[in-house]
Design brief:
alpha/beta, 8 helices, about 30% helix, globular
Length: about 240
């Protein structure tokens, strides 16, 4: 039986990127189709007020990345926070990427804010700080494509760090068997990262831009993270 995943899309792509990449929901569907666990996905753009009906049930809810700030006060962000809190209190499994990673940390007692480290772009390497049964295939280190100027600076008190670097100490975390979040973008591909870097070249400055472009020579582990996510959703904790 395949897993049913609700993708809560929190952005609309820039006009020059829409034709090729459609949206983050589509990018996640393409990514998840490359991992071995059967899953089907329904995308709701919550920025436009689109949510599942009350009678629809899912095995997990994934919150995508966004140009918006997780600590922003936009009405759609407040609506999403209330929705996610309800889902969390009901015991639903929640997945977060970039904006979603930060928003869930914020919502569950942590803190996210503009990072003093500045923009993180291109390919980034993390040390893995924890092991879990759903982290298969096993990796010693993790490499992901990134694009963020905000970071989680305080984790919720019951969270466990999975991946970290000097630049981004709380790059991935899980809360028991219910919440799993990554700052990096498993759904990105190199061409999309390059397009984002080109669009932001002036704002980033030449040094950050060049370093980001050069880092795209490196492969990334997006499909590994996709498999971890689906194994996390399928994982049933052993009851004593």
């Amino acid at each position: 039986m395949s897993l049913r995943i609700c993708i809560l899309e929190t952005d609309i792509l820039r006009p020059e990127l829409v034709d090729q990449y459609q949206g983050y929901g589509q990018m996640f569907q393409r990514l998840f189709s490359q991992q071995p666990i059967a899953a089907e996905f329904t995308v709701y753009n919550v920025m436009q007020g689109d949510y599942p009906r009350d009678d629809e049930t899912f095995d997990a809810y994934l919150v995508t990345g966004s140009k918006a700030d997780s600590f922003g006060t936009d009405p759609w962000i407040q609506t999403l926070k209330a929705y996610l809190l309800t889902r969390y209190e009901r015991g639903d499994k929640l997945l977060g990427v970039c904006f979603g990673h930060q928003l869930l940390a914020l919502l569950l007692g942590g803190k996210s804010e503009r990072a003093t480290q500045g923009w993180g772009v291109g390919t980034h390497n993390y040390k893995l700080a924890a092991k879990a049964p759903w982290m298969s295939p096993v990796r010693e280190e993790l490499t992901l494509l990134i694009s963020h100027q905000d970071q989680v600076t305080t984790l919720p008190e019951n969270a466990t760090v999975i991946a970290s670097s000097d630049f981004c100490p709380f790059a991935a975390y899980h809360i028991n068997d219910q919440v799993l979040c990554f700052q990096g973008h498993p759904e990105f591909i190199h061409d999309y990262s390059r397009a984002l870097l080109d669009i932001r070249q002036e704002a980033l400055g030449e040094q950050v831009y060049s370093k980001g472009i050069n880092s795209l020579e490196q492969e990334h582990h997006g499909t590994t993270v996709a498999e971890w996510m689906m194994r996390f959703v399928a994982h049933k904790p052993e009851t004593v």
